[in-house]
Amino acid sequence: MILDRTGIPYARSGAFEGASQSPRMSSFMAPTIGPNTAVGNSLASLRGRSRQAIRNNPLAKGGQGTFTSNMVGSGITPRFQFKDPDLKEQVQELWLDSVPEFDFDGNADFYGLQAVASNALFSDGEVLALFRPRNSYADLAVPFQVQLLEADHLDVAYSTTLPNGNKIRMGIEFSRTGQRVAYHLHKDHPGEYFMNDNSAVRTRIPAKNICHIFDPMRPGQQRGLPGMASILAKLHEIDQCVDAELVRRKTTAMFGGFITQINEYNADDPNPLGFSQGAGNGVDVVALEPGTFPVLLPGQTVTLSQPRDVSGNYVAWMKQQLMDVATGMGITYDQLTGDLADVNYSSIRAGLLEFRRRIIQLQNKTLIFQFCRPVIQRWLTTAIVAGALSIPDYLQNKRRYWRGIHWQPQPWKWIDPDKDMKGEIREMRAGLKTYGMALADRGLDVESIFNEWAEELSIIDKLRLIFDTDPRNTAGTGVLQPEQGEGDEN
C-alpha cells in the first residue's frame, strides 16, 4: 500500500476511467503529439487513399457530391451593401462581367471554382488558390484571375530553417514571430509523370498572393486533413465485405443442385445426360437451362442447392456501418444511401437542421473567410488601380467598403413548403423576422425585390388588373378586400 504525505492511501485506479492503464484499456494507444506532427506523418497516405476511395467507391463519390452540393450549390454570391446606389450598381455590373473570367485555367466561372475547392476540401482536406494578376492584353473586365492548385504542390515533407531565421514547416514559411509569410510550391504537380520537367523546382509565393483553404481542427494546425480521414479504414473494410458477399451470392447462384449417384453405373455412352466434361477433376456438371428436365439414371437423386441466406443480419449490420460512415463524412445517412424507408417529416427535418448548421459553420469558416473574402478584396483593389472602377477614397478607406460586402450561400429548400411558409409568416407577423431577413434566407436582396415589386404594381394598377396574389385587393382566401372606408359608419 502506498500512502500520501497525510497518511491516506493512494487510490488504486485513476480518477478517470479513460486514463486507466488496466488491461481493459491497454490496447488503447493515444500518442500525445502535436497537431502538425500528427498531420505531417499521415497526410500523404490519407490524401492518396481518400482520392482512391472517391475514384472507386460509390459511397465516397456520393458523399463528396452531397458535401459540395450543400456547401456551394449554385454558388456563394456577394451582396454589395453600399450606401451610394450608383456605386452599388457599378460594382454589381462589373462583378457580373468578371464572374465568368475568374478561372486562370478557363474551366469554370467563380462559382465553379468554389465547387472545385469544395471537392478538394472533402477529398484532400485543403486546396490552394493562387492570385494571378494579368495585363491589358488578357482583355479582362478586371485584370485579375485565380488559379486553383492541389495541395500536392505544397510539399508536406519540406521543412528547414532559413539563414534569415524564418522556418519552413511542411512547405509553409513562417517569420520569427510565427506569422505565415510565404508558401514554397512545386512549379509542376509532383504526381504528374508525363511532360513534367519542373516537379522538383520550388517557387516562393508571398502569403498575400495565395489562399490556403482548409478546416483547422486544433490550435496551431498548419495543414488540412481529408474529410474522410476518420472513416477510411472502415470504408475500405465495408467495401471488402460487400465484395465478399457479392462473390458469395454469385458463387452459390451458379449451383442449381447436386446429383448423387448411389450405385455405380457404367454405360456404353460415357456422357448420356450431356454432362459437361470441362472441369478436369472427374466431376461431371449438368448445364441447366429454363424448361429442361434431365432424365436421371437408376440410382441417381437430385438435391437442390440451398445456400445460406444471411440477408437479415447483413442488412441491419450494414445499415449501422453506413450510419457511422455518414457521421464521419459529416452528412446524414439518407443523404449517403438514398434510403428514406424509415424517415418521416419530423425525423428528416431534425437531421437536416443539424446537418445545415454544420454546413453553415464550414461555409463561413473555410470558403467564405479563406477564399471568397480575400478574392473579392483583391479583385476590388485591382479594379480601382486598373481604372475599371472609380472610388476616390477607396485606398484610404478599404475596410469600410469591404464591410459592405456580404456573402449569401444558396438558400435551403423547405422540407414541407406549406408548413414552413406558415411558420415564417407567423414569425414576420410577430415581429421576429423582417422582410429583409426572409429574403436574405432565399439569397435575395430586399431593395432589389421591393424595386421590382414597385415596378410591377405600377403596371398592374395602370392596366386596372386584379390578381388573387395581390394582398391590396384580395385576402388570403381569395375574397376581395373591402374598399377603404367601405365599412366606416357615417
Q: Can you lay out the helices and strands and say which pair or pack?
A:
Layout: H1 35-56, H2 58-71, E1 77-80, H3 85-98, H4 110-123, E2 126-133, E3 144-150, E4 160-161, E5 167-169, E6 172-174, E7 180-186, E8 202-206, E9 210-214, H5 232-253, E10 257-261, E11 300-304, H6 311-329, H7 333-337, H8 345-386, H9 398-402, E12 405-408, H10 417-429, H11 435-441, H12 446-462
Antiparallel strand pairs: 1-12, 2-3, 2-9, 4-5, 5-6, 6-7, 7-8, 10-11
GO biological process, one term: virion assembly
Protein name: Phage portal protein, lambda family
GO molecular function, one term: structural molecule activity
Structure in words:
This protein has 490 residues and is α+β, with helices and mostly antiparallel strands. It has 3 domains: 198 residues, no CATH class; 51 residues, no CATH class; 105 residues, no CATH class. It is built from 12 helices and 12 strands. The strands form 4 sheets. Strands 4-5-6-7-8 form a 5-stranded antiparallel beta sheet, with no helix packed on it. A hairpin with a 2-residue loop joins β5 and β6. α1 crosses α2 and α2 crosses α4. The protein is extended and about 100 Å long. It starts with 34 loop residues before the first helix and ends in a 28-residue tail after the last helix. The model has no long low-confidence stretch (mean pLDDT 85).
In helices, the fraction of residues equals 25-40%
Would you tell me the structural class of the helices and strands? Answer: alpha+beta
Mean pLDDT over the residues: 85
Q: How many separate domains make up the residues?
A: 3
N/C terminus separation: 101 Å
Characterize the largest beta sheet: strand count, sense, and whether it forms a barrel: 5 strands, antiparallel
SSE order, as H and E? HHEHHEEEEEEEEHEEHHHHEHHH
Indicate the proportion of strand residues.
Answer: 5-15%
The global form is extended
Quantity of strands, as a count: 12
* Spatial sequence of strands, sheet with the most strands: 4-5-6-7-8
InterPro entries: Phage_lambda_portal
GO molecular function, one term: structural molecule activity
Protein name: Phage portal protein, lambda family
